[in-house]
């Protein structure tokens, strides 16, 4: 009697054949098995001699995937923002609401949806195109600075901060630790509360102009917000690095690109507001 475990195993178990027990078929089966084993050995040898599979071959996340998708989304964002600036800047509230809703939907989805992420990018382009001209006009009244000058300065400052944050992360001078993440979360919650209070006070007429975001306090808060956004970029880089090292599926490159776009939009808005405050009374 054979071992029932081995007998029922797909690897060690005997193939389930008919009830015939003729000697010839048994030897024929053994010969076939020997041929199969030889073929399997040849296949294994070919596998071992073949070049190692890359992350692209295994459909795993790569840095190239993230770079390509992030670059594509940013290009789409710029095109939509430029079109909105020139043709329909008054649509920015619609873009703001749509971007907020789509941002929350994408943030809570377990699996990324490229269509929803692209839709979010388009909505943010509409929002940024309109809000950029609104901020620029608020500053032009007193300084006479061209509208496009402030926007270009904000774009350059955003890209420079992105490069600086990436350099600091790659150099290891700034490491993402649990303490760092905890500090960032607390600071972001505090900043969010401050911003909401300021919006309510300005919209209800209690404060005018920039509200608590004007003057020296406004500049200090703006610089603090820029620091928070830069720290968020470093956390994003760390998350992407861990995703690549852990071999997560390639589809999550969309999630990484979405996260980077969200942080870059926030950083751009902070620079834009800061420059508008500098250039206004």
From TrEMBL:
Kindly give the InterPro entries that the UniProt entry links to this protein.
BaxI_1-like (IPR010539)
The reply on keyword Nucleotidyltransferase is no
Keyword terms: Membrane, Transmembrane, Transmembrane helix
Enumerate the residue ranges of region (Disordered).
1-30
Where does the chain cross the membrane? 66-85, 91-108, 115-138, 150-169, 181-203, 215-240, 252-269
Top-level taxon of origin: Bacteria
- Where along the sequence do coiled-coil regions lie? none
Matching entries from PANTHER family are given as: CONSERVED TRANSMEMBRANE PROTEIN-RELATED
Q: Please report the name of this protein according to its UniProt entry.
A: Bax inhibitor-1/YccA family protein
Origin species: Isoptericola luteus
